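Need the bound structure for iron/sulfur cluster, inputs here:
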Amino acid sequence: MSIKIDKNKCVGCKKCIEVCPGTLICKDEDGKAYIKYPKNCWGCTACLKECKFSAIEYYLGADIGGNGAKLKVLETIDTLDWIITHENNKNTTITTNRKESNKY
Ligand code: SF4
Ligand code: SF4
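Answer from helper R.:
Posting the output first, comments after.
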């Protein structure tokens, strides 16, 4: 399990650094976030949910989305859209209500 941070989308707000329970994410010399200890990521998805710029993608296991599948999160006022990009580049979107997120 691990994540990938797109430097072109990252604005250096540090939210992902603050929420990562393993202190795995750092800032580089350009002020952009990067994951320093990718092997230690256990996939809690806290950083994905916190990034308002969809700069973080999470690598899914082959049993979930197929080889090379990735997950990212887009936030709206009321929802979180969990977008799975499969190996064939097709997307599956799962929408959750943010106000009821503790039910999931
Ligand atoms: S939360 Fe997103 S935009 Fe902010 S530092 Fe992390 S990756 Fe960059
Ligand atoms: S998924 Fe969780 S453990 Fe992994 S880098 Fe993000 S916040 Fe840290």
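Comments: The chain has one domain: 2-103. The pocket of iron/sulfur cluster (ligand 1) is lined by residues 5, 10-16, 33, 50-51, 53, 55-56 (CB under 6 Å).
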